[in-house]
Amino acid sequence: MMEVYPDQTLSLPGSVITIGAFDGVHRGHQALIGKAVERAAELGVPAVVYTFDPPPRAYFQGVTVLTPIEEKMRRLQELRPQYVVVAGFDAGYAARGVEDFLEELAALNPREVWVGPDFRFGHKGAGDVSTLSARFVTRVFEPVRCGKGRVISSSRVRRLLALGFRRDARALLGWNSL
Questions:
Q1: pTM (two decimals)
Q2: pLDDT tens-digit map of 76-103
Q3: How would you write the chain as a 3-class SS string?
């Protein structure tokens, strides 16, 4: 059973963490989270999904949220992580420094941290994959591509929906509901 915690409240003796906005929990997100859950099982530690509400792009750029937090939690539950950390993304969270975020992750004692290649964190995105790698064993999960070779992303799903291509968007999401 998946347990949900606010940021800065969970500590674990070991874990495998994956971090991201996971808006839409699309096929690329599903593959990344699935890999983290698989690695956690292999290492004998719980899998942790660290996500944000609202997603940072919704906060900073006002983009449409594909999955409100309740729907995101239902979709994450199906992917079977043991824990989900939901960071309330607001001005205070956005102002957090790189070291503060790294300390929060350290409380989860990650054996591995799984992120996408463009992962950024901390105030004004000051931290990146190399910053994370200096502190933790970090695995970069390459983007998942659709049959046409294009990267599956939340931005692409939003564009398809805006153009009225619901069936194409649903195919990228990999979920029946939309």
A1: 0.95
A2: 999 999 999 999 999 999 999 999 999 9
A3: CCEEEECCCCCCCCEEEEECCCCCCCHHHHHHHHHHHHHHHHHCCCEEEEEEECCHHHHHHCCCCCCCHHHHHHHHHHHCCCEEEEEECCHHHHCCCHHHHHHHHHCCCEEEEEECCCCEECHHHCEEHHHHHHHCCEEECCCCECCCCCECCHHHHHHHHHCCCHHHHHHHHCCCCC
